[in-house]
Amino acid sequence: MVHASAYKDPHHVMLFFEEISCPEDNKQCLTDRIGYYNDLKNNGKVVISGNFWNQDKNFVIVSVSDDNELVQIIENDPAVKQKVLELVKAMPF
After folding, report:
1. Domains and their CATH numbers in the chain
2. What is the largest CA-CA distance in the chain?
3. Adjacent-strand bridge partners of 89
4. 91: how many CB neighbours lie within 10 A of its CB?
5. In 45-84, which residue ranges form alpha helices assigned H by DSSP?
6. Helix, strand or coil, per DSSP, at residue 42
7. Which end of the chain is more exposed for a tag (fewer CB within 10 A), N or C?
8. Pairwise CA distance, residues 22 & 50, whole Å
9. Is 44 helix (H, G, I), strand (E, B) or coil?
């Protein structure tokens, strides 16, 4: 994971995820993931999320106060926990 430690103040990070297992077998996990990010959005932590058209990749832009919060968000992602998706890039800005 790319650490955003150069960013001492609250900042945004764009997270890119890629499928590593068949989502058809993990529909509940993906449903849980949608709920997870909706909850974060309601708490002001997710700016936007979506999928890349015709690709097995998606992205989430989160607003975090520090690296620890970023790591918590990623590690608590249901699809990451179930090894359905993996983080392939984190771009702080």
Report:
1. 11-92 (3.30.70.1060)
2. 40
3. 16
4. 13
5. 67-75, 78-81
6. helix
7. C
8. 18
9. coil
Is 27 exposed, middle or buried, given 0-12, 13-18 or 19+ CB atoms closer than 10 A? exposed
For residues 60-78, one letter each, b for 16 or more C-beta atoms within 10 angstroms of the residue's C-beta and e for the rest, the string is bbbbbeebeebeebbeebb
pLDDT in tens, 3-55: 545 556 779 999 999 988 776 677 888 889 999 999 999 999 999 988 776 66
Q: Which amino acid is at 63?
A: S
Q: In the structure encoding, which two tokens stand for residue 32, read together?
A: 């849980």
Instruction: Identify residue 81 by its one-letter amino acid code.
Output: K
Site of tokens 């999320």: 49
The answer to whether residues 29 and 84 touch, using CB atoms and an 8 Å cutoff, is yes
Token pair 């993996």 in the structure block, residue: 86
* CA Rg value for the chain: 13
With H, G, I as helix, E, B as strand and everything else as coil, classify residue 68. Answer: helix
